[in-house]
Design brief:
Distance between the termini: 21 Å
Number of helices: 6
Helix content: 10-25%
Largest sheet: 7 strands, mixed
Order of helices and strands: EHEHEEHEEEEEEEHEHEEEEEEEEEEH
């Protein structure tokens, strides 16, 4: 494989913006991602969910935001290596050699890790028959809102995802309930107030204890977390939004400084390994905010620092794009 200026590990929003900005700066780029398509969690977990905190968009569907990130991120023709997991990073005279689990060897001069939360999987409720009903009434995300059209939907959770889906499914679902084991939430205040004012029934101080049904889910047993009393709750679908368990996987063995499953970086978003940067959710530093809005800024900074390392005569700030004549390679 050819040596590129920068290899970006992760094809989500931050990785895609890093690809765009590196192309803007005339750098050759490779994107490595374990998923079969670009877009990261926007595409894989909640394509039908609205995102409200991206500058310039009062609200935008995750799948539409991912589409535009992809168009922007690949316009300079980066090399795409999908369905490959980065497994080993070896220092070389010219930079690094990145190896994948399937045996590819990818030489690169610098690396930007934009791996999000790493390899992630949704947290399960932890009750009997949960795996049996997976896709037959138990869901951990929403790929297509029409799946829940007219159904009696129960959402489990008290964070942003739970409240966002309560709002986003209100126009297609039948009866809706939101189950949470207490009366304190981690969601944004505005989302909480909107759901409280909606037709969604909020059942607080309850937890799911048993699942019922033959081939498909028909209901659950709820237990009051204070009184321990139980009652039957009918529903066609349960959407579980109680978080994700993430793992950095092979990245843990690269010699990076890691703190609470995140990679520590300095003010240049550089790790303790020279020429290896980390941005987005996978990176940690004082006053870190896990937002797309801040992550894309980290991407631009990391790219510009990498550019000056590779070419000491290059300016750190290339100027505003509105003052440039940008010509992407012909497809």
């Amino acid at each position: 494989m050819n040596t590129v200026d920068v290899t970006i590990i992760g094809g989500g929003p931050c990785g895609l913006f890093a690809s765009f900005y590196a192309g803007l700066r005339g750098m050759s780029v490779r994107i490595v991602d374990s998923l079969p398509e670009l877009g990261g969690q926007l595409t894989a977990l909640y394509p039908e969910k609205y995102v409200y905190d991206v500058p310039g968009f009062p609200k935008v569907l995750a799948k539409d935001l991912a589409r535009d990130f992809i168009v922007q991120g690949i316009q300079f023709g980066p090399e795409l290596v999908l369905e490959e997991t980065a497994s080993e990073l070896i220092k070389t005279e010219d930079g690094y050699l990145l190896k994948t689990l399937k045996g590819l060897e990818l030489p690169t001069r610098t690396v930007i890790i934009a791996a999000g939360a790493g390899a992630f999987q949704p947290t399960r409720i932890g009750v009997e028959r949960e795996e049996e009903f997976h896709g037959k009434g138990i869901f951990y995300g929403v790929k297509d809102k029409s799946t829940f059209a007219g159904k009696n939907v129960t959402i489990v959770g008290g964070g942003d995802s739970a409240f966002d889906w309560a709002m986003n499914l209100e126009d297609v679902a039948g009866p809706m309930s939101l189950i949470h084991r207490r009366d304190v939430f981690k969601a944004h205040e505005d989302s909480i107030e909107k759901v409280k004012a909606s037709r969604v029934e909020m059942k607080l101080w309850f937890a799911v204890k048993h699942l019922h049904g033959e081939d498909y889910l028909t209901g659950v047993t709820l237990e009051n977390t204070q009184t321990k009393e139980s009652h039957h709750h009918e529903c066609d679908a349960v959407i579980v939004n109680i978080g994700f368990k993430s793992n950095l996987g092979p990245l843990k063995d690269w010699g990076l400084n890691i703190e609470k499953n995140q990679i520590k970086v300095d003010g240049h978003f550089e790790t303790n390994l020279p020429g290896v940067f980390a941005i987005g959710d996978v990176a940690t530093f004082p006053s870190k905010l896990k937002l797309i809005a801040t992550g894309v800024g980290e991407a631009a900074t990391a790219v510009c620092i990498a550019k000056t390392r590779l070419d000491p005569t290059a300016k750190l700030f290339p100027g505003h794009s509105s003052d440039m004549e940008i010509t992407a390679p012909a497809s």
